[in-house]
Here is the input.
Amino acid sequence: MAPTDETGQAAPQSSPSGPTPPAQPPVGGAAGPNGRMPRWLPRAMVLALALVAVFQLGSWAFHQLTGLLINVLIAFFLALAIEPAVSWMASRGIRRGLATFVVFIGVMVVAAGFVTLLGSILADQIIRLIEGFPEYLDSVINWVNTHFRTDLKRVDIQEGLLRSDWLRNYVQNSATGVLDVSAQVIGGLFQLLTIALFSFYFAADGPRLRRTICSLLPPARQAEVLRAWEIAVNKTGGYLYSRGLMALISGAAHFVLLQVLDVPYAPVLAVWVGLVSQFIPTIGTYLAGALPMLIAFTVDPWYALWVLIFVVIYQQFENYVLQPKLTSKTVDIHPAVAFGSVIAGTALLGAVGALIAIPAIATLQAFLGAYVKRYDVTDDPRVHGHRRRGEEPGLITRARRLWARRPGAEESGE
Here is the structure.
């Protein structure tokens, strides 16, 4: 039995070499089997939870503000586009705010006039279609009765159509969708107003905005920011200038065709083709040609075919002759890069990304080009896609060698 002291606790036993030392606590503050939690663990847990909460809050705020951020991005590029005109007017002594207002009024008047004329065209064509629908229906019924030996009547078809469940359901769905369409129209108008206000502020207060940004950066970074801003203005303005010039040429060419074919509303249709084909990438040409083809079809079906042929031929002329010459000094971007940037922009931001992709990539390419070191290219023929002379025999030389190696050539003494 182990000896005890007066407190009733077991006395430490002595070993042959002396008394056993008391047990020491764990080194480093780590908790033992019955120890307490380390002091740094609660703080780490609170910090981790705070970081997760901040990330979730930031992600939620970003998704909620995505529409506003896209509107600001569009407004920024519009401000860059009108910056040359505003700066030119400001250099002539006009206040920058007034110059921006004048440019905005001019753009809005042109856009409103174009939309009004286009709306009048569509309304007139819809009225003509409704008025001529009975004649079209009679011609279709006569063709069916003649070829399929039936006895259809227009009155019976109209009554059956009016009494059908499909028409009733369609009218009900259209009536319930009126509110949705109205809400979308109001939302679109509010979005346009937001873009216009931000564009006006970016253009009117451009120098103040640049000074504010530069005040937060050291002098070396300030020069880079100003240079990038200048490149963005030049590339965006050059892109719009080249597109506007190509829209003018395209509209004039299509106006001549529509005037020769005596298609109604030729001037407005020419403006439609010019603008839509140039400012809607990739599919803009075919989308623009659909409306003139439809109106030409109402005059003569063969006219629609002529319009289609002309649209296809002009698109090839524009892609391989006109566009490279006009954009070589303004945008200076390879067609494959432009096509890829449009696809990437569409995948990221939809139609907005498709519109701003080319000037954005052109700006980035021009800005990075100043920091990429370039070397002189050698005169090696392989650079131009040719092989060095003497490395491989030509076709005629190889044919002679094969002819000399044919069986019986040595026996005949050739």
User: Anything to note?
Assistant: The radius of gyration is 38 Å.
